[in-house]
Design goal:
By secondary structure, the protein is an alpha+beta fold. The protein has one domain (2-183). 28% of the residues lie in helices and 28% in strands. The chain has helices spanning 2-21, 86-98, 124-127, 151-161, 179-183; strands at residues 36-43, 46-57, 62-70, 74-82, 102-104, 117-118, 135-143. The protein has a 7-stranded antiparallel β-sheet with strand order 1-2-3-4-7-5-6, with helices on one face. The radius of gyration is 16 Å and the shape is globular. Residues 165-186 have low confidence and may be disordered.
Length: 186
């Protein structure tokens, strides 16, 4: 478990450096420095270690990216967000589609064994749901024996949160500010 914890610390530090050095599309309130690593012992009777990074969590809203190493089973990466981040979801939905992330129905979002279902072609299908289901989870699951860490985990992170070369220099974040206005980087 110590090796797994160390691996997630290494990932967090690497990802924090990526976010510091590159324009990104995260909400400005998201913690992009420390995140949270924690352990558990009973995800279907197996131990696990979680990294929540980046993250923003309050009692009424959240936006966080969870990487779970489920010992002996799989590695699960999940983006969790509430209805407050509907504009972010609409803008970045093509990235979720290109990563082939699955949508997890509301009543299963906290169950790591749920692999979900393919995303519909448009986010409006998801955002038209009942108010009680305005929490979304998008997930990729890697069988543990098929992953050569940390490359696919970092690639998913980069594809979701960093602007690529074709992204406009004046891309807007969730509050409508450009990333350069927020970070002060040219």
């Amino acid at each position: 478990m110590d090796k797994v914890h160390h691996l997630l610390e290494t990932l967090r530090n690497h990802w924090a450096q990526l976010l510091h050095n590159h324009p990104h599309n995260l909400p400005p309130e998201a913690d992009t420095f420390s995140g949270r690593i924690h352990r558990g012992n009973n995800a279907q009777h197996l131990p696990y270690v979680l990294l929540d990074f980046p993250r923003y969590i309050t009692p009424s809203q959240f936006f966080f990216f969870r990487t779970m190493i489920w010992i002996g089973k799989s590695i699960v990466q999940t983006l969790y967000l509430t209805h407050h981040y509907t504009p972010w979801l609409h803008r970045h939905y093509p990235k979720l589609l290109s990563l082939k992330m699955n949508w997890i129905p509301h009543h299963h979002i906290w169950n790591p064994a749920q692999t979900g279902q393919p995303l519909p072609p448009s986010p409006s299908t998801l955002t038209r749901s009942k108010p009680t289901t305005h929490t979304w989870a998008f997930r990729i699951t890697y069988p543990i024996h098929q992953v050569l860490l940390p490359h696919p985990l970092t690639q998913t992170f980069k594809n979701l949160f960093l602007h690529n070369q074709t992204t406009s220099q004046s891309s807007r974040n969730v509050n409508g500010n450009t990333n350069h206005e927020r970070t002060g980087r040219p």
